[in-house]
Amino acid sequence: MALNLNLRSTIYTVAANNFINLWKSATFPKIPFSVLILLFNRCDLSVKDEFETATLILQWLEFTNRSEMQCLALAQTIRAGLLTQKQKNEIIIRLSISTKAGKRFSKIFENVLNSSRSQRCCLIEDHIKVGYKRCGIPAWNEELRPIENIKIKVSQKIQEEKDITFIDKSRPPPCVHKDDDVLLSDEPSEYLMQFWA
């Protein structure tokens, strides 16, 4: 039976808010790749900083043989503007020695992390106020400092469409991205439901 769109959205929100617990599950390495990409793109991922996000991605790549396409797609979810150059170098070095395709993968990460496109950052005002670790601009990043005062507000219409009445209202607002629904197919959503049964 097809899952209600709101239910699918809620499943992903719960998964993002409990990501570390989900990560520790024995079956997590088998999670559908489309789900993994969606989660790693979210602002409300429950990580302590972007370096932890990158570390979790490396662990997934190290688990078994992965393709260059998967490596590239995951690398592009990292918000490099939240990483110091030292952290970027550490990620690249670790990848070069920890996977069978280390040299190829490390080159992919090096190109992505040093690309201007990877310097993107979330400036949604509500996300910054509630303290999402993947949102805002770090104090040390002088390159991104000129855009610090830009404030982005999500339209009320989108907020209403994404409002889930059975989400705990004491929690921060759910991460809202217009493209989320493209990946919200029933099969991956039903897979995630196993963890919350």
Automatic annotation (TrEMBL):
This is BACK domain-containing protein. It comes from Panagrolaimus sp. PS1159.
